[in-house]
């Protein structure tokens, strides 16, 4: 089951939905971006995207650094923008930092 998250407003109403890829790949073998698509509440339209971006073979092999990109509409509520930025940290921790966390 692909990862999925609901972004809610202050009243607890779901306003955006994040849907991740079916298969999340990590490490130097993954030479493509991992896209988490942000949809409207009804899943009828794409609103934005959170992507873990492929950094290149050497950087992926020799560093633990990850690059993420976030896109969303300019007129999106500032609180929802901040929540989407928080979702980047959650996605990074949940899917791309797990092996490092198990060693601690």
What this model shows, in words?
The protein is 29% helix and 30% strand. The model has no long low-confidence stretch (mean pLDDT 82). It is an alpha+beta fold and 104 residues long. The longest helix has 19 residues, at 78-96.
What's the topology here?
Blueprint: E1 4-8, E2 14-19, E3 34-40, E4 46-53, H1 57-62, E5 67-71, H2 78-96, H3 98-102
Antiparallel strand pairs: 1-2, 2-3, 3-4, 4-5
Features:
five-stranded antiparallel sheet; elongated; 104 residues; alpha+beta; single chain
Brief synopsis:
The chain is of the alpha+beta class.
Supply Rg: 15 Å
Helical content (DSSP H or I, runs of 4+): 25-40%
Query: Could you state the order of secondary-structure elements as H and E?
Result: EEEEHEHH
Shape designation = elongated
Q: Count the DSSP helices.
A: 3
Q: Please list the strands of the largest sheet in the order they lie side by side.
A: 1-2-3-4-5
Low-confidence stretches: none
Q: How would you classify the helix and strand content by structural class?
A: alpha+beta
**Largest sheet: number of strands, sense, barrel closure:** 5 strands, antiparallel
Q: Work out the number of β strands.
A: 5
Cα-to-Cα separation, first versus last residue: 27 Å
Query: How would you state the average pLDDT, rounded?
Result: 82
β-strand percent reads 25-35%
């Amino acid at each position: 089951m692909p990862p999925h998250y609901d972004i809610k407003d202050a009243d607890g109403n779901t306003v955006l939905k994040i849907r991740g890829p079916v298969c999340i790949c990590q490490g130097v073998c993954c030479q493509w971006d991992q896209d988490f698509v942000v949809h409207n509440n009804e899943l009828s339209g794409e609103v934005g995207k959170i992507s873990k971006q492929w950094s290149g073979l050497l950087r992926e092999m020799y560093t633990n650094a990850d690059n993420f990109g976030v896109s969303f509409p300019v007129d999106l509520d500032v609180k929802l923008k901040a929540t989407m930025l928080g979702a980047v940290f959650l996605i990074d921790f949940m899917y791309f930092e797990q092996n490092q966390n198990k060693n601690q």
